[in-house]
Amino acid sequence: MQGLDFSIVLPYTDLLWIGAWWTSVLTVSAAALSFVFGILFAVAVLYAPKVIAWPVRFFMWLFMGTPLLLQLFLIYFGLVQIGLNIPALGAGIIGLGLHFAVYNADVLRAGIVAVDPGQTEGARSIGFGRWQTLRYVVIPQAVRNTVPPIGGNMIALLKESSIVSVIGIAELVHSAQLAISETFRPFEFYITAAALYYILNLVLEGGLRLVERKVEVSR
Asked: Is 143 helix (H, G, I), strand (E, B) or coil?
Protein backbone atom coordinates (compact mmCIF):
# COMPACT_ATOMS: atom_id res chain seq x y z
CA MET A 1 0.00 0.00 0.00
CA GLN A 2 1.45 3.36 -1.08
CA GLY A 3 1.53 6.23 1.38
CA LEU A 4 0.98 9.86 0.51
CA ASP A 5 3.95 11.63 -0.99
CA PHE A 6 3.34 15.29 -1.75
CA SER A 7 6.92 15.74 -2.93
CA ILE A 8 5.67 14.31 -6.24
CA VAL A 9 3.71 17.57 -6.69
CA LEU A 10 6.79 19.83 -6.67
CA PRO A 11 7.91 19.19 -10.29
CA TYR A 12 4.39 20.10 -11.43
CA THR A 13 4.07 23.33 -9.43
CA ASP A 14 4.32 25.54 -12.53
CA LEU A 15 1.65 23.50 -14.31
CA LEU A 16 -0.73 23.86 -11.36
CA TRP A 17 -0.11 27.59 -11.01
CA ILE A 18 -0.81 28.04 -14.71
CA GLY A 19 -4.07 26.16 -14.16
CA ALA A 20 -4.88 28.44 -11.21
CA TRP A 21 -4.13 31.48 -13.40
CA TRP A 22 -6.53 30.34 -16.13
CA THR A 23 -9.15 29.53 -13.50
CA SER A 24 -8.81 33.13 -12.31
CA VAL A 25 -9.07 34.48 -15.86
CA LEU A 26 -12.17 32.38 -16.50
CA THR A 27 -13.79 33.45 -13.23
CA VAL A 28 -13.14 37.18 -13.62
CA SER A 29 -14.16 37.26 -17.30
CA ALA A 30 -17.29 35.16 -16.83
CA ALA A 31 -18.24 37.11 -13.68
CA ALA A 32 -18.03 40.42 -15.59
CA LEU A 33 -20.10 38.96 -18.43
CA SER A 34 -22.69 37.54 -16.03
CA PHE A 35 -23.02 40.88 -14.23
CA VAL A 36 -23.50 42.95 -17.40
CA PHE A 37 -25.94 40.49 -18.97
CA GLY A 38 -27.69 40.04 -15.63
CA ILE A 39 -28.55 43.74 -15.66
CA LEU A 40 -29.61 43.62 -19.31
CA PHE A 41 -31.82 40.57 -18.78
CA ALA A 42 -33.42 42.04 -15.66
CA VAL A 43 -34.20 45.33 -17.42
CA ALA A 44 -35.52 43.51 -20.51
CA VAL A 45 -37.86 41.33 -18.45
CA LEU A 46 -39.24 44.31 -16.52
CA TYR A 47 -39.35 47.09 -19.10
CA ALA A 48 -38.80 45.85 -22.66
CA PRO A 49 -41.67 45.24 -25.10
CA LYS A 50 -43.09 41.72 -25.05
CA VAL A 51 -41.38 40.87 -28.33
CA ILE A 52 -38.07 41.21 -26.46
CA ALA A 53 -39.13 40.36 -22.90
CA TRP A 54 -40.66 36.96 -23.68
CA PRO A 55 -37.61 35.55 -25.57
CA VAL A 56 -35.42 36.74 -22.68
CA ARG A 57 -37.74 35.03 -20.19
CA PHE A 58 -37.57 31.84 -22.25
CA PHE A 59 -33.77 32.04 -22.41
CA MET A 60 -33.58 32.47 -18.63
CA TRP A 61 -35.97 29.57 -18.07
CA LEU A 62 -33.92 27.39 -20.44
CA PHE A 63 -30.57 28.16 -18.79
CA MET A 64 -31.97 27.72 -15.28
CA GLY A 65 -33.49 24.36 -16.19
CA THR A 66 -30.55 22.73 -17.96
CA PRO A 67 -27.09 21.68 -16.68
CA LEU A 68 -24.08 23.91 -17.22
CA LEU A 69 -22.22 20.96 -18.77
CA LEU A 70 -24.87 20.60 -21.49
CA GLN A 71 -24.78 24.34 -22.16
CA LEU A 72 -20.99 24.22 -22.60
CA PHE A 73 -21.28 21.31 -25.03
CA LEU A 74 -23.93 23.16 -27.05
CA ILE A 75 -21.81 26.31 -27.25
CA TYR A 76 -18.49 24.60 -27.98
CA PHE A 77 -19.55 21.62 -30.10
CA GLY A 78 -23.07 22.51 -31.24
CA LEU A 79 -22.48 25.98 -32.67
CA VAL A 80 -19.80 24.60 -35.01
CA GLN A 81 -22.60 22.96 -36.99
CA ILE A 82 -24.07 26.37 -37.83
CA GLY A 83 -20.69 27.90 -38.69
CA LEU A 84 -19.75 29.45 -35.32
CA ASN A 85 -16.40 28.02 -34.30
CA ILE A 86 -15.74 29.48 -30.85
CA PRO A 87 -12.35 28.75 -29.21
CA ALA A 88 -12.49 26.69 -26.02
CA LEU A 89 -11.60 29.62 -23.74
CA GLY A 90 -14.25 31.83 -25.33
CA ALA A 91 -16.83 29.05 -25.09
CA GLY A 92 -15.99 28.56 -21.42
CA ILE A 93 -16.34 32.26 -20.63
CA ILE A 94 -19.59 32.56 -22.59
CA GLY A 95 -21.05 29.39 -21.08
CA LEU A 96 -20.20 30.30 -17.50
CA GLY A 97 -21.15 33.95 -18.05
CA LEU A 98 -24.58 33.27 -19.51
CA HIS A 99 -25.31 30.49 -17.02
CA PHE A 100 -24.78 32.81 -14.06
CA ALA A 101 -26.21 35.85 -15.84
CA VAL A 102 -29.70 34.38 -15.55
CA TYR A 103 -29.27 33.91 -11.79
CA ASN A 104 -27.90 37.43 -11.42
CA ALA A 105 -30.83 38.69 -13.49
CA ASP A 106 -33.28 37.06 -11.11
CA VAL A 107 -31.57 38.72 -8.14
CA LEU A 108 -31.30 42.10 -9.85
CA ARG A 109 -34.92 41.99 -11.00
CA ALA A 110 -36.00 41.64 -7.38
CA GLY A 111 -33.59 44.44 -6.42
CA ILE A 112 -35.04 46.78 -9.06
CA VAL A 113 -38.60 46.07 -7.98
CA ALA A 114 -37.62 46.73 -4.35
CA VAL A 115 -36.32 50.26 -5.06
CA ASP A 116 -38.59 52.85 -3.45
CA PRO A 117 -41.01 54.17 -6.13
CA GLY A 118 -40.43 57.61 -4.68
CA GLN A 119 -36.91 57.50 -6.09
CA THR A 120 -38.32 57.06 -9.58
CA GLU A 121 -40.89 59.79 -9.10
CA GLY A 122 -38.22 62.15 -7.80
CA ALA A 123 -35.97 61.46 -10.79
CA ARG A 124 -38.81 62.01 -13.24
CA SER A 125 -39.79 65.24 -11.50
CA ILE A 126 -36.35 66.76 -12.20
CA GLY A 127 -36.56 65.93 -15.87
CA PHE A 128 -35.02 62.45 -16.14
CA GLY A 129 -36.48 60.23 -18.83
CA ARG A 130 -37.35 56.57 -18.26
CA TRP A 131 -33.96 55.19 -19.28
CA GLN A 132 -32.03 57.95 -17.51
CA THR A 133 -33.96 57.12 -14.34
CA LEU A 134 -33.06 53.46 -14.70
CA ARG A 135 -29.41 54.15 -15.47
CA TYR A 136 -28.66 56.78 -12.84
CA VAL A 137 -31.14 56.07 -10.06
CA VAL A 138 -32.82 52.65 -10.07
CA ILE A 139 -30.10 50.28 -11.30
CA PRO A 140 -27.29 51.68 -9.08
CA GLN A 141 -29.52 51.27 -6.00
CA ALA A 142 -30.60 47.79 -7.07
CA VAL A 143 -26.95 46.77 -7.55
CA ARG A 144 -25.97 48.13 -4.12
CA ASN A 145 -28.85 46.24 -2.49
CA THR A 146 -27.98 42.94 -4.17
CA VAL A 147 -24.21 42.81 -3.67
CA PRO A 148 -24.31 39.87 -1.17
CA PRO A 149 -26.39 37.46 -3.31
CA ILE A 150 -24.51 38.41 -6.47
CA GLY A 151 -21.29 37.80 -4.56
CA GLY A 152 -22.60 34.36 -3.64
CA ASN A 153 -23.17 33.67 -7.33
CA MET A 154 -19.58 34.71 -8.08
CA ILE A 155 -18.25 32.25 -5.52
CA ALA A 156 -20.41 29.53 -7.07
CA LEU A 157 -19.05 30.52 -10.49
CA LEU A 158 -15.47 30.04 -9.27
CA LYS A 159 -16.30 26.52 -8.11
CA GLU A 160 -18.23 25.64 -11.26
CA SER A 161 -15.34 26.81 -13.46
CA SER A 162 -13.82 23.35 -13.04
CA ILE A 163 -16.47 21.99 -15.42
CA VAL A 164 -14.83 23.72 -18.40
CA SER A 165 -12.00 21.18 -18.19
CA VAL A 166 -14.26 18.88 -20.25
CA ILE A 167 -13.77 21.08 -23.32
CA GLY A 168 -9.99 21.13 -22.93
CA ILE A 169 -9.34 24.42 -21.16
CA ALA A 170 -6.16 24.15 -19.11
CA GLU A 171 -7.67 25.42 -15.85
CA LEU A 172 -6.81 24.00 -12.44
CA VAL A 173 -8.62 20.65 -12.61
CA HIS A 174 -7.39 20.03 -16.15
CA SER A 175 -3.82 20.77 -15.06
CA ALA A 176 -4.16 18.36 -12.13
CA GLN A 177 -5.47 15.69 -14.47
CA LEU A 178 -2.49 16.14 -16.78
CA ALA A 179 -0.12 15.66 -13.85
CA ILE A 180 -2.05 12.60 -12.68
CA SER A 181 -1.84 11.05 -16.15
CA GLU A 182 1.96 11.15 -15.86
CA THR A 183 2.39 10.21 -12.20
CA PHE A 184 -0.67 8.04 -11.44
CA ARG A 185 -0.94 9.83 -8.07
CA PRO A 186 -4.48 11.28 -8.04
CA PHE A 187 -4.87 11.90 -4.34
CA GLU A 188 -1.90 14.24 -3.95
CA PHE A 189 -2.81 16.33 -6.99
CA TYR A 190 -6.52 16.57 -6.27
CA ILE A 191 -5.76 17.62 -2.68
CA THR A 192 -3.34 20.25 -3.99
CA ALA A 193 -5.91 21.48 -6.50
CA ALA A 194 -8.50 21.69 -3.71
CA ALA A 195 -6.08 23.77 -1.61
CA LEU A 196 -5.49 26.15 -4.53
CA TYR A 197 -9.26 26.49 -5.07
CA TYR A 198 -9.59 27.32 -1.38
CA ILE A 199 -6.94 30.04 -1.70
CA LEU A 200 -8.70 31.51 -4.75
CA ASN A 201 -11.99 31.36 -2.88
CA LEU A 202 -10.49 33.24 0.08
CA VAL A 203 -9.14 35.93 -2.26
CA LEU A 204 -12.55 36.29 -3.93
CA GLU A 205 -14.38 36.42 -0.60
CA GLY A 206 -11.95 39.08 0.61
CA GLY A 207 -12.61 41.16 -2.50
CA LEU A 208 -16.36 40.79 -2.09
CA ARG A 209 -16.21 41.84 1.57
CA LEU A 210 -14.25 44.93 0.52
CA VAL A 211 -16.92 45.78 -2.06
CA GLU A 212 -19.68 45.26 0.51
CA ARG A 213 -17.96 47.59 2.99
CA LYS A 214 -17.59 50.29 0.34
CA VAL A 215 -21.25 49.91 -0.59
CA GLU A 216 -22.29 50.26 3.06
CA VAL A 217 -20.20 53.43 3.39
CA SER A 218 -21.75 54.92 0.24
CA ARG A 219 -25.35 54.42 1.37
From this structure: helix
Distance CA 210, CA 217 (A): 11
Summarize pLDDT for 121-171 with one digit per residue, the tens: 888 888 888 888 888 889 999 999 899 999 999 999 999 999 999 888 888
Q: How many angstroms separate the CA atoms of 47 and 134, rounded?
A: 10
Q: How far apart are CA 161 and CA 15, in angstroms?
A: 17
CB 155 within 8 A of CB 182: no
Asked whether the beta carbons of 38 and 111 are under 8 A apart, the reply is no
pLDDT in tens, 103-122: 999 999 999 999 888 888 88
**Whole-model pTM over 0.85:** yes
Phi, then psi, of 50 in degrees rounded to 5: -60, -30
